[in-house]
């Protein structure tokens, strides 16, 4: 149970968000990594519609997550995961090909797969019904399917991207969950679907998700 | 002059590409970081249209760059830059807020700015003339302009994103160059335009670019 109000790690997350993004807001990645590493963290919950004054000095785009570790502040879930992982070799091997594989697949999730996932979520949720969005969908799905092929190929022979479970899996599985929320690209691909299920079966993921949802539950606005 | 055929670092890049992507192919980021750190590297040049057999085991999407460091192989320019930077504190401070700022802005370039740049380049170069691409352009430019605001704000008071020049700047400046190749978002923003110019003025960038272009020049197909 790593949530501890006195922990030196302080995670900034939202108090509440609408249900269609439950489990998708990116602080859950950090919660997951902390649970895997057994690292306690405190929560700093902020309002999604009314950000604290000066919050742009903490997170330039006024998004979450952000992390404070003692006096040091990080933003971007990818940077925070790397910082957490440097504390625990289980999440990022210290050297050799195991580290190289973890880092390469970790960055691949951020920069080769997530850009298509971001566009898909924009087309599907935020631009839905617009002419261009409807026209774009087929080629976007086709391009994303091609991006996912090497990921499935990699996972055909192994449970996790880089040998043992690592931050590469935290990130890739969470990106695949975002794709799954807006398409059937994951459910139609048995290797990828099974990989996401393996992630969801981990007690650390279940605790991380429960803790994100618990905050939303506690702080549901009265009008909703 | 870090190119050395006997160096333990071996960078995979293309022998030749068409001129509209000169300077944009991502091996130039690695060349730039190596030049900044004074690290020698050898070139392993491959054909963009006919990849070597089995190349998908080196780079899952059969793209460049890839890096071999002795026996260890990396792919994804972001992962390679982190590996290079771990060898030289000038590119990535070892601890404290300076490291946190560098890592946060480094990942921001990859995951907050580059996804929009990737979509822009797709719309502008690879999907040009398609109905949806024409319709998408205004909202895409508007969204990207908003993403760039905090970057310009950060750079209004400083030359580089995280104090001294770092891998965050290598990545962010190269992403901005890609945006500049497809829009006037950079040239219309004096702070960002000046930042890119500061990057281009660095001898390490000039050498990196010259070395990428020299390979293309040497290997221009006869029919072109």
UniProtKB/TrEMBL annotation, chains A, B:
Q: Which InterPro entries does this chain map to? A: Glutathione-S-Trfase_C-like, Glutathione-S-Trfase_C_sf, Glutathione_S-Trfase, Glutathione_S-Trfase_N, Thioredoxin-like_sf
| Pfam families the UniProt entry points to | GST_N (PF02798)
Please tell me whether the keyword Transport is annotated for this protein: no
Coiled coil, from the record: none
Q: Which domain of life is it from?
A: Bacteria
| UniProt keyword list | Transferase
On whether Transferase is a keyword of this UniProt record, the answer is yes
Alphabetized GO MF terms:
transferase activity
Pinpoint the GST N-terminal domain residues.
29-92
Q: What positions does the domain GST C-terminal occupy?
A: 95-222
- Which PANTHER family does its entry note? GLUTATHIONE S-TRANSFERASE GSTA, GLUTATHIONE S-TRANSFERASE-RELATED
Instruction: State what protein this is by name.
Output: Glutathione S-transferase family protein
């Amino acid at each position: 149970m790593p949530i501890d109000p006195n922990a030196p790690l302080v995670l900034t997350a939202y108090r509440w968000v609408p249900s269609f993004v439950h489990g998708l807001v990116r602080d859950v990645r950090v919660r997951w990594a902390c649970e895997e590493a057994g690292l306690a963290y405190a929560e700093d919950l902020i309002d999604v519609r009314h950000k604290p004054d000066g919050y742009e000095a903490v997170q330039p785009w006024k998004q979450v997550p952000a992390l404070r570790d003692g006096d040091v502040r990080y933003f971007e879930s990818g940077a925070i995961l790397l910082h957490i992982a440097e504390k625990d070799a289980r999440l990022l091997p210290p050297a050799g090909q195991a580290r190289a594989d973890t880092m390469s697949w970790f960055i691949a999730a951020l920069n080769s797969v997530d850009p298509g996932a971001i566009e898909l979520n924009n087309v599907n949720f935020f631009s839905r019904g617009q002419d261009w969005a409807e026209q774009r969908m087929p080629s976007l799905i086709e391009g994303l399917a091609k991006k996912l092929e090497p990921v499935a190929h990699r996972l055909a022979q192994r449970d996790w991207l880089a040998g043992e479970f690592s931050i590469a899996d935290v990130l890739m599985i969470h990106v695949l969950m975002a794709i799954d929320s807006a398409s059937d690209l994951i459910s139609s691909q048995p290797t990828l679907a099974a990989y996401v299920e393996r992630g969801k079966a981990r007690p650390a993921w279940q605790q991380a998700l429960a803790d994100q949802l618990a905050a939303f539950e506690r702080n549901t606005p009265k009008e909703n």
